[in-house]
Specification:
Layout lengths: L6 H12 L6 H12 L19 H12 L5 H7 L9
């Protein structure tokens, strides 16, 4: 592992950049544990069940809107009706 960074420090950095409610400290601890146990990438594995509507194009479109200041949830959910409000 390249850096031996504590979960609390990672959580603090994420909170500083994205806000305090973006991810729990417990979830960050879970991520740190997974990478220490050998996980090598950040992508989710395949899961059974309903297929996701989230595509790389959708992620890029939403990211572009966020970067241009279109931060209102209502406008984002109207612009991307294929994704539920909770996903946007």
């Amino acid at each position: 592992m390249g850096k031996d960074v504590k979960a609390i420090a990672i959580h603090r950095q994420i909170s500083e950049v994205y806000g305090g409610n973006i991810v729990s400290e417990g979830m960050v601890r879970k991520w740190v544990r997974a990478f220490k146990d050998g996980r090598t990438n950040v992508h989710d594995g395949e899961r059974s069940g309903r297929r996701s509507v989230i595509t790389e194009d959708l992620v890029q479109d939403v990211d572009g809107k966020l970067r241009t200041g279109a931060l209102r949830l209502s406008s984002l959910s109207k612009e991307f009706p294929q994704a539920s409000r909770s996903v946007v």
